[in-house]
Amino acid sequence: MKRLIVGVGGMTNGGKSTLSKGLQQKISNSCIIAQDSYFKDESAIPVDNNGFKQYDMLDALEMDMMMRDVGSWQRDPNWFLRQRGLNTTQNNGTGVFVLIVEGFLIFNYRPLNEVFDKRYFMEIPYHVCKTRRSSRVYSPPDPPGYFDGHVWPMYLKNRQEMERTVSGIVFLDGLKSKEELLAAVNNDIHQEIEKLREKA
Ligand SMILES: Nc1ncnc2c1ncn2[C@@H]1O[C@H](COP(=O)(O)OP(=O)(O)O)[C@@H](O)[C@H]1O
Ligand SMILES: NC(=O)c1ccc[n+]([C@@H]2O[C@H](COP(=O)(O)O)[C@@H](O)[C@H]2O)c1
C-alpha cells in the first residue's frame, strides 16, 4: 500500500485549513489531521507577565497524541479513513493513500517534520494576518493586544527556528486566491502521486 504525507504549515490565518479541505475534496483516499485539534486544556497553558496565555508554542500542544494519530494512519490508512467515516475507493492495491497534516507548528516538531514527503508553508504579510485574525474567534478569544504581544513575536521566533532546522519547504503566497492556491498545490501533489504509482 503506497502512502504520501503532505505537510501544510503556515502562519496563523494563512489559509491552511481552507487549502487542506480543498485538497481533501480533490484527492481520493485522503484525510486531514489538524494540529488545532491538539491544544491542551486552557488550565494547562502558562501565562506570561502581561497575562497572555502562551498558546503559540509547542508546549501548548499534545504532540504525543498527534503523533499517535499520525502513527495509526501510517499503520493502516484504510482503517483510519473508515474510523473517520470517510469513503475509500477501490484501488486494487495500486492506489496511493494521502495524509494531509495541517498546522502552524508542524515543522517545528522534529518527529512530525520527519514524516513529511512534501512540505508547504503559507505566508501572508503582518497586516493581513492581523486583520484576518481579528475576525476569528478562538476559545478562549484573543484578549486585547494579544496579536502584537504574543502571536506575532512567537511567529517570528518559531519561523526563525524552522528556517534554521528544516529544508525543502515550498513557500506559498497566501495572498493568491483560494482557487489559484488549490489548483497549484493539487497539481503538485498529483504529480507526486503519479511518481509513486509508477514505482514498482
Ligand atoms: N487565499 C485566500 N485569500 C483570501 N482569504 C483567505 C484565503 N485563504 C483563506 N482565507 C480566509 O482567511 C481566514 C483564515 O483561513 P484559514 O484557512 O482558517 O486559515 P488557517 O487555517 O491558516 O488559520 C478565513 O476567513 C478564510 O476564509
Ligand atoms: N484551538 C485552541 O484551543 C486555541 C486557543 C487559543 C488560541 N489558539 C490560537 O490558534 C492559533 C493556531 O491556529 P491557526 O493557525 O488555525 O490560527 C495560535 O496562534 C493560537 O494562539 C487556539
Automatic annotation (TrEMBL):
Domain of life: Eukaryota
GO molecular function: ATP binding; metal ion binding; nicotinate riboside kinase activity; ribosylnicotinamide kinase activity
Keywords: ATP-binding, Kinase, Magnesium, Metal-binding, Nucleotide-binding, Pyridine nucleotide biosynthesis, Transferase
GO BP field: NAD+ metabolic process; pyridine nucleotide biosynthetic process
Gene Ontology cellular component annotations, sorted alphabetically: cytosol
CDD domains: NRK1
Keyword Membrane: no
Catalytically driven reaction(s): beta-nicotinamide D-riboside + ATP = beta-nicotinamide D-ribonucleotide + ADP + H(+); beta-D-ribosylnicotinate + ATP = nicotinate beta-D-ribonucleotide + ADP + H(+)
SUPFAM superfamilies reported for this sequence: P-loop containing nucleoside triphosphate hydrolases
Similarity comment text for this entry: Belongs to the uridine kinase family. NRK subfamily.
Classification via PANTHER family: URIDINE KINASE (PTHR10285)
Protein name: Nicotinamide riboside kinase 1
Native organism: Channa striata (Snakehead murrel)
